[in-house]
Amino acid sequence: MALSKLDNLYRQVILDHTNHPHRKGVLDEATSQIELNNPTCGDVIQLQLVIEDGVIKDIRFDGSGCSISMASASMMTDAVIGKTEKEAIEIIGSFLELVQGHDVANKDDLKDAQLLSGVAKFPTRIKCATLAWKALERGILQQERTTVEGQLHTED
Q1: Using CA of residue 69, residue 47, residue 94, residue 127, what is the dihedral sign?
Q2: Domain that holds residue 108
Q3: Is residue 156 part of a domain?
Q4: Which end of the chain has fewer CB atoms surrounding its CB within 10 Å, N or C?
């Protein structure tokens, strides 16, 4: 019975992030803008970052997609705001491992995003959960802070 209550809590947190997303909107002074889509299901995310002195000072997302995609984007913003680029890349790596069903050492760094570990049981939903995280990774790794567009999981 306790597991059922825990599952309900997880679902409630995911629904809360879907219905009341954190940091959804547009940044006027973004230093990096990334748009990615998941051609498999039609999820689209536009991510904007303000990175100063190697630190994510602000982050916003917009887009459309399933509840997993939008909740994951909201959770991601909570996990990386105020982090250095290096810390954010490590958090991204942990999340990508988590949704593949692997154990991760620094699970607490993921904050609410650790609740998406169950996505590993539904391989078709992994791309939904990772869309925003892949956009963030591209935004951090790009050399010049310009708009980057692309599709998720084409050949990367």
Answers
A1: positive
A2: 2-151
A3: no
A4: N
The Cα–Cα gap between 12 and 142 comes to 35
* H helical segments located in 20-155: 67-80, 85-98, 123-141
In this predicted model, what pLDDT tens digit does every residue of 28-86 receive, in sequence order? 899 999 999 998 889 999 999 999 999 999 999 999 999 999 999 999 999 999 999 99
Global pTM? 0.87
Query: Any idea which residue has 């990772």 for tokens?
Result: 130
- List the CATH number of the domain containing 135: 3.90.1010.10
Helix, strand and coil percent figures for the chain, each rounded to 5:
50, 20, 25
* pLDDT tens digits for range 128-153: 999 999 999 999 988 444 444 555 54
Rounded Cα distance, 68 and 74, in Å: 10
Give the single-character DSSP code of 143.
Answer: S
